[in-house]
Amino acid sequence: MKRLILATLVVSLASPTAASADDLIPPAWRGEPGSTYQAWTFDTEPTSGILYPEVDDNEFGSPAILDSYWPDDSDWLALHDGRPGVWNPYWEFYVELPNDDAALPLKDIYIQITWNEYDEEGANVGRPAPSVYWPSGEYTNSVELDVEYPLESNWMYSRWHVRIWPNPDSESIEVISDNGWNELVIDQIVVDTICIPEPATLVLLGLGGLAVLRRG
């Protein structure tokens, strides 16, 4: 219920006509040391299958989307369902993220995607379904959809969260169509990451701080 109330409040405050407005529920730790933030708004037509973000706050390298189906099966729409600059990839793409190589136990990743339920011909399309890979070859399908609600017309907002361990120096987020073959219609992608100590370590650090205060 709290999640639904928060989502309703954010939508009421944000203008859906501005692409940046779909960065609706950013993590509280954005901008902290060890974090990255990147956003794709697809304002202009891609010139290749490598799409660089319009917003890039990643000091560890250059994040990019890799679309292996461009341009034969993917497309870009100048206007779709009331929104300018919409990416229409085929059933799969990858978000490649260089990241902090600090020797920390955990990494949190939040993924926000604004997507449409229909293509330009009015046919129903797939919904995004992300999973995360890292350099060791491991991957996780336990990417939790923690917020989802409708925007204007047939647009949807979804946010996923995943925690992976140990912290890798890069990640690859595979986004596929949930039915395994249909195209996707996307207006914005926002990804935040942060390297963090495990919760037990945070508790110990807090207790250590209290001990210093007591000794002082």
Largest sheet: 6 strands, antiparallel
Termini separation comes to 44 Å
* Number of contiguous helices: 2
Order of helix and strand elements from N to C terminus: HEEEEEEEEEEEEEEH
Strand order of the largest sheet: 3-1-14-8-12-11
* CATH level-3 fold name: Jelly Rolls
What would your notes on this structure say?
- Strand 5 (75-80) and strand 6 form a beta hairpin.
- The chain is globular.
- It has helices spanning 2-13, 199-215; strands at residues 35-40, 50-51, 55-57, 64-66, 75-80, 83-88, 92-98, 106-116, 128-133, 139-140, 144-150, 155-164, 170-177, 186-196.
- The chain contains 2 helices and 14 strands; from the N terminus they run αββββββββββββββα.
- The termini are far apart.
- It has one domain (2-215): Jelly Rolls, CATH 2.60.120.
- It has a 6-stranded antiparallel beta sheet with strand order 3-1-14-8-12-11, covered by helices on one side. A 6-stranded antiparallel beta sheet has the order 2-4-7-13-9-10, with no helix packed on it. It has a two-stranded antiparallel sheet with strand order 5-6.
- With 216 residues, it is mainly beta.
